[in-house]
Amino acid sequence: MAKTVKIYTTPTCPYCTMVKTFLKEKNISFEEVDVGRDRIAAKEMVDKTGQMGVPVVEIDGKIIVGFDKEAITRELGG
User: Which pLDDT tens digits describe the chain residue by residue (78 residues)?
Assistant: First the structure.
């Protein structure tokens, strides 16, 4: 069963681009949320993580801060 993946990003974040490229290469669908434009989403991200840094990857409710390939792969079941 496919996992629900959400990425909190900003347009100028190079690590955000790396996460998106990584997921696309693995054919993983994801929802991207630009916290630079969406203040409600930014607050949601800070409430969940306690920080303002991006990227934040949420996989089925599990939070991964930053571009951590190993943690992302593990949460995706691979």
Answer: 679 999 999 999 999 999 999 999 999 999 999 999 999 999 999 999 998 899 999 999 999 999 999 999 999 997
Handedness of CA 13, 36, 24, 55 (dihedral sign): positive
- Tally of structural domains, the chain: 1
Question: What string of H, E and C letters represents the secondary structure of the chain?
Answer: CCCCEEEEECCCCHHHHHHHHHHHHCCCCCEEEECCCCHHHHHHHHHHHCCCCCCEEEECCEEEECCCHHHHHHHCCC
Question: The CATH number of the domain where 41 resides is what?
Answer: 3.40.30.10
Burial of 1 (0-12, 13-18, 19+ CB in 10 A): exposed
